[in-house]
Amino acid sequence: MKKYFPSSELIINEDGSVFHLHVKPEWLADKVILVGDPGRVALVASHFENKECEVESREFKTITGTYKGKRITVVSTGIGCDNIDIVMNELDALANIDFVTREEKDQFRQLELVRIGTCGGLQPNTPVGTFVCSQKSIGFDGLLNFYAGRNAVCDLPFERAFLNHMGWSGNMCAPAPYVIDANEELIDRIAKDDMVRGVTIAAGGFFGPQGRELRIPLADPKQNDKIEAFEYKGYKITNFEMESSALAGLSRLMGHKAMTVCMVIANRLIKEANTGYKNTIDTLIKTVLDRI
Ligand code: R1P
Ligand code: URA
């Protein structure tokens, strides 16, 4: 029996597009670039030779076009893993559910997803301007814990080592952080030898969860010192951003290939930031477009 998805579970708009993204199934390419900022979608698409569709709803802006003969869809996710839950489920539905019969398709269609983002660097080898590719992501967001199969795809010994190191219990780690690998083949192809490979914390916020203290004190004032000092089997935590864990986790559960690469715009260790990064991220965009 094929799985059937009623309209309450998979919401399809009157024009046949998926609920939040407003994208129709025929508009989705196999290669997908995800960015946080809707303004970055036009920057990616400015390299396309042609555009076949452009649609926008809330923070989700989508353009499909061609780059050097490759059909690519670029989508903005806005900020946070909660949005990645929406984007990944709707992209997977567009690829693998028949929008007429509302049944799962017979043939699985695998997507290749690369997130191009910005991040905060945490180590001496991640100064402003570095491209960091997330080999592993530590999800502070808890999203993956709501899906069956989470333990089968996560690095459980790494999770235990990290929690022990932080000394967190109770509310600080509920639901507990999850540790998830990006797709290795994609990392080798996109990061090659010129990007830093690291472990990324996908935080559930920009301030407190990343150890930024403005007027309200932090629950654990030593959080970032401990994160920077953490080491497990040669891995050190390199950077903070806010989406890579849910992207890597949901892609693994769904059978897609995914990875995240971010440009460092703030180094937390030496307390420097660059707000004029919008032009330099174009170098990263072009590199990913060439390698995807
Ligand atoms: C925070 O400023 C945002 O920037 C980073 C974080 O993950 C978060 O989304 O990525 P983007 O530049 O892709 O949005
Ligand atoms: N994005 C983040 O999530 N954190 C930073 O420090 C910079 C960009």
Beta-strand percentage range: 25-35%
**Which sheet architecture does the biggest sheet show?**
5 strands, mixed, barrel
Global mean pLDDT: 96
Distinct bound molecules = 1-O-phosphono-alpha-D-ribofuranose, uracil
Q: Strand tally, please?
A: 14
Helix content: 25-40%
CATH class, anyone? Alpha Beta
Say which CATH homologous superfamily is assigned: Nucleoside phosphorylase domain
CATH topology: Rossmann fold
Helix/strand-derived category reads alpha/beta
Q: Quickly give the CATH architecture.
A: 3-Layer(aba) Sandwich
Measured distance between first and last alpha carbons: 36 Å
The DSSP helix count reads 8
Strand order of the largest sheet: 7-12-10-8-13
Can you tell me the residue ranges where pLDDT is under 50 for at least 5 consecutive residues? none
Total of domains: 1
Key traits:
two-stranded antiparallel sheet, EC 2.4.2.3, 29% strand, Rossmann fold, 292 residues, alpha/beta, five-stranded mixed beta barrel, Nucleoside_phosphorylase_sf, binds uracil
